Amino acid sequence: MPSSVPGELPNRFPQSGSGARSRGVSTSVPARDRAASSIPLLGSELSVLFRRRRTWAMLLALAAIPVLIAVAVRLSSSVPSGRGPAFLDRISQNGLFVAVTAMLVSVPLFLPLTIGVVAGDTIAGEASLGTLRYLLVAPAGRVRLLLVKYAGALVFCVAAPVTVALAGAAIGASLFPIGPVTLLSGDVVQPPEAAVRLVLIAAYLAVSLAGLSAIGLFLSTLTVVPVGAMAATVVLSVVSQVLDQLPQLEWLHPWLFSHYWLGFGDLLRQPVLWDSFGSNALLQAGYVAVFGALAYGRFVTKDVLS
Amino acid sequence: MSRAWLRWMPAVAVPAVIAAGVLAGSIPARAGNPLPEKTPAQVLVMLGGHTISTLSGTVEQTSELGLPELPSTAPSSGPASAGGAASIAELLTGQHTARVFIDGPSKARVQVVDRLAERDVIRRDTELWFYSSRDNSAAHLTLPSFARDLPLAEPPKAPMPPDQAPAPMPGLPKPELRAPDLPLPPVPAPDMPIPVPVPMPEYSVPTPEDIATRLLAAVDSSTQVTVGPDVEVAGRAAYNLLLEPRTQGTLVGRVAIAVDGETGLPLRVTVTARDQAEPAFQIGFTSLSLAKPDDSLFTFAPPPGATVKELQLPGARPWPVTSGFPGSPGMVVTPDAAAAEIYSRTGPSHMMPAMARPSVTGTGWETVLGFPAAPAGQGSALSESLLKDPFLAQAAVVVPGGRLLSTTLVNVLITDDGRIFVGMVPAERLQAAAGAVAK
């Protein structure tokens, strides 16, 4: 390997030769082998992603949100109901609401911010490091690389809300009593059932961020400057949320990828209202399909110079 | 490079497929097996005679009444924190979703689904609970025991605004309503357009067909009743009963009631203003299951930490205003009903006695109700309190002789001397009525 390759690159090939070979000569490798060799590729992608200090810094920042909320509520006097973010007034009665409140607070900006960084970095990051061309010795490897990159971003989409939920539940349990949880409908469920609802909310958020990840992936194929793709992704998520607030654009709202982001409250009803989960999943699937196809079109026709 | 365009094919094809799918989905699917032809009277009989007593479904209400748009509510602030007319306007404008669960006449639950919040009304026998998640407050009301064995609020109850839950909804107990699905103009005016076919105890019980035929004959002079092409509501084929005022002097263009072809359950009510393409008001099921809901849904105990308020039924019998919104499935909208309904929701309920004797001008769809300014000051206090409400003050426009609260379906004129005129008529007619009554 050329000496110019940054130190990160060796991480991508845990079993030194095998990954490189499958990438290099994949045109002649049968489809099944190619699928099988994608797994070590994904593994190496994930290990690079989660060995980065940046990724850990982002996850720690996300985990700090519930901690800040819990400490603030703990130190202050009781929160008058109806003020501040929803559920904030419930925290002092039940620690599990720290997780819910933290997820609610992080939806508009913090989660899209971290997803933007990860998704915007996927292709453009490799290009800026000069490692992209080594990953793409053969043109047929591009689709697989794109898929693996997107899968890595999706794993982060799961990890981010789960981090918030876990940190929230942990800090909530240590600072506040844990007891039966009052749902939006006024019904009360026991902590195990409430934990299931928390997992469902995290899953809802993970699904919600899938569309944004696809957008970030596409933007990342457009440029060799990762910061540009990251910023553009985050800006798009903010623009989408602003548009969602304008009543004049009501016809557009169901088509905005952020439209159902706050709909996870429906998982806190009794019985669970699945409509928004379904609509959200369908919408995100649409975004993944459209921007996935755009990213494919761009990436396979792109002249990779770096 | 010549194959580069091929690589972009998916990027073109995927949006095209999605667009095609959306278009195909938006074209109303014709029922493969069209319903057998029925006359309006037969559809009315179905409507009045349905025996559905258990259901769970989602009801959606949309209104384009032309009221000023309220600022989109942030998750933290919302209808519960806004008071007075603004919260009513909030329910009358925009879009609302409610889940409805009904099991027999005495068990019901309505959940008004707000973003990150919910307002519930739960009834089991004589126990009535209101709950608002926004401020974690509950209110309890014990219904009089005789309400239990009466056919209370037949299936599709409209999403009620429990809304802070201070006031019991007017008319919820409906003590003397024996034929809940028949149109009941709530204001017993002398020249009522529709004779009320309420079977009295001593009355020989008429067949539903009789009632339907008589009702149709009675409304024929003012309203054209037809059955339109079948519609599909909540995935069910339904008859579309169309009521069109014969007069030009009303704001209402058409009222459409979708009646389930299988069970006769009213599925959707759409009110369209004159010369408008989009419905001004629509409430209907978006999903519906006739299975018996889980019994535990009707059990409610105030959650820990909730503030609980014990409510008393008001001593005076509330107006026999049918529960729910004007045009909730299950009732036929008459002009008086809708006007009075809107009015009763605009005025605080304890002011009801003040407007017990409205003057009536015009008939049928052109009815104008006038509420005098009571000498005791009650009436003027009412109109003053109406105008003091910041939302109404903003919505009302100054016109010659008073202030006008104008919507696409109903106009409300509050004259300078405190009288109030309500009607589903153009504003000029209200002003004319105000002038005529003054003389």
Question: What fraction strand of chain B?
Answer: 25-35%
In CATH, the topology of the domain at 335-438 in chain B is named: TATA-Binding Protein
Decide which structural class fits the backbone of chain A. Answer: mainly alpha
List the chains of the largest interface with their residue counts. Answer: A-B, 42 and 43 residues
Could you name the CATH class of the domain at 335-438 in chain B? Alpha Beta
Count of helical stretches of chain B? 9
Report the span from N to C terminus of chain B. Answer: 88 Å
Distance between the termini of chain A: 15 Å
Query: How many domains in all of chain A?
Result: 1
Overall structural class of chain B, as computed from helix and strand content, comes to: alpha+beta
Oligomer: heterodimer
SSE string of chain A: HHHHHHHEEHHH
Largest sheet of chain A: 2 strands, antiparallel
What is the share of helical residues of chain B?
Answer: 10-25%
Compile the SSE list and pairings.
The complex is a heterodimer of chains A (306) and B (439).
Chain A lengths: L16 H8 L6 H21 L1 H23 L20 H11 L3 H20 L2 H4 L5 H35 L5 E2 L5 E2 L1 H32 L3 H20 L29 H27 L5
Antiparallel strand pairs in A: 1-2
Helix pairs in contact in A: 2-7, 3-4, 3-5, 3-7, 4-7, 4-8, 5-7, 5-8, 5-9, 7-8, 8-9, 8-10
Chain B lengths: L3 H4 L1 H18 L13 H10 L4 E10 L20 H9 L1 E10 L3 E8 L2 E8 L2 E6 L4 E6 L65 H12 L3 E11 L2 E10 L6 E9 L5 E8 L7 E9 L17 E5 L23 H12 L12 E3 L6 E4 L6 H11 L1 H6 L1 E3 L2 E5 L4 E5 L4 E4 L3 H12 L1
Parallel strand pairs in B: 6-12
Antiparallel strand pairs in B: 1-2, 1-11, 2-3, 3-4, 4-5, 5-6, 7-8, 8-9, 9-10, 10-11, 13-14, 14-18, 15-16, 16-17, 17-18
